[in-house]
Amino acid sequence: MRRIGIDVGGTNTDAVLIDDGKVVQGVKVATTADVTSGVAAAIEALDLSANLTAGIDALMIGTTHFINAVVQRRHLTKVAVIRIALPATSSLPPFTDWPAGLAELANGGVWQIEGGHDYDGRRFATLDIAAARQTAREISNRGLKYVVVNALFSPLDPSDEKAVAAILREEIPDVSVTCAHLLGGIGLLERENAAILNASLIALAEETITAFEHAKSRVGLNAPLFVTQNDGTVAEASRAAAYPVFSFASGATNSMRGAAYLSGLKEAVVVDVGGTTADFGHLRNGFPREANAVVHIGGVRTLFRMPDLVSIGLGGGSHVDLDGGTIGPLSVGYRLSKEALVFGGNSVTATDIGVAAGLIDLGDRKRVAHITADEVSGILRRCKEMLEENVDRMKTSAEDVTLIAVGGGAFLVPEELQGVGRVVRVQHGGCANAVGAAIAQVSGEVDQVFQGLTRDEAVASARKLADTRAVEAGAESASLALVEAEDTPIAYLPGNAMRVRVKVVGDIRSTRIEKAAKEKVACQSVS
């Protein structure tokens, strides 16, 4: 397999070429305000020959566009929300716990109808079909095209969500429906919030994917496009456009997967020091450990497939206050090559401190000669304290851990840290995020409550369902491997109930790549 992996970060856009499992080349270019230029520049920087370009099997891209849209309150679309739970939950309608400004941007209207199931899987109330159809017509009259459907305990039984989604598609032919049971687990509000964020970003996701396609065309690349996901895996472009929330934390997880691949380690703590932030995560079986609690995105409570990460404002572009002896959290970002002292700018950054300390050789070292040795050591000492504190937050025991340091700002990680047995640095570590994108696999995941089954039967049922979902997403069935399995008995439910979480991964099915490539050629012939 010959692949190009790209990760679009806040400061740099990294790209790598992988051929037969080896990193042939890695490059960094400055991230651009528009998507197309930065991605195209990264591909062009790889200096591919014409023959090699034609032989690329897949283009894998990771991006922060979608989570940035939520955090920055930009590019969000109005969403209609249908909750199927009456007569329950009416006192806490959708958007109840949202920040006011964000809710104003995304709230296109709320409808609540009778239906849903109870916590033990039994029907809570009969689905009001007439109300569902009337609601669909009202949504159509308002001109809303993006709709969320969330039913009470739908992860146990999604039939009501599916029925209402079918009605919406009958009444509004061009509607985009997000069913909450496909995104989140048990937890009505958190699952609903994730679905709303997803629906509000679909228009942006489609625009972004189109920009990626344009970047491919601009450099003459015909390979099929895949977009990386929160769990370190990948999805076809069309699927990624339908579920943009699954790409929220893909940058950090790409780095962790890349770190595991380049180091050969499957159990370790990873720190990815970029230009703006340092992201900490814990590898388990070569994949990032997933968060099993509420995750706040832009001030909104969610509970869906997200890695367990800690991010701090420490990076190569972080502002440095020499008088106060502090570093970050503000950063010059993609303007580093213009604003840092060593590049002729006027801002003291972490990169300038690294150059002054002899940790890295960039730009004009004479421009940082005025920074004293005491000032340099003070900033590096503060940097060391920040790293130690956050490595400790990721640890699951008091024992020393192995720390893999990657990213363009990894020079800020010292060789000795409290709580760390050894620091591992890898070749091409500066582009670990792009490597993680290039080697990504396809996943299938299940988080569901099973009743009336033994533990082994419940886990086997979940594994079978996870395998099916992975194959549907484009995985080669023969390559599927189990990477995570958890089961938790639920004492308050009858029938020997237990919650089972299973995750499997597999290689991209070759027929998917061939099909995508043929469809691309056919589309170009028609145009």
From TrEMBL:
Residues 191-361 form the Hydantoinase A/oxoprolinase domain. GO terms for molecular function: hydrolase activity. SUPFAM superfamilies: Actin-like ATPase domain. Residues 3-172 form the Hydantoinase/oxoprolinase N-terminal domain. It holds the Pfam family Hydantoinase_A. It comes from the Bacteria. This is Hydantoinase. It comes from Bradyrhizobium icense.
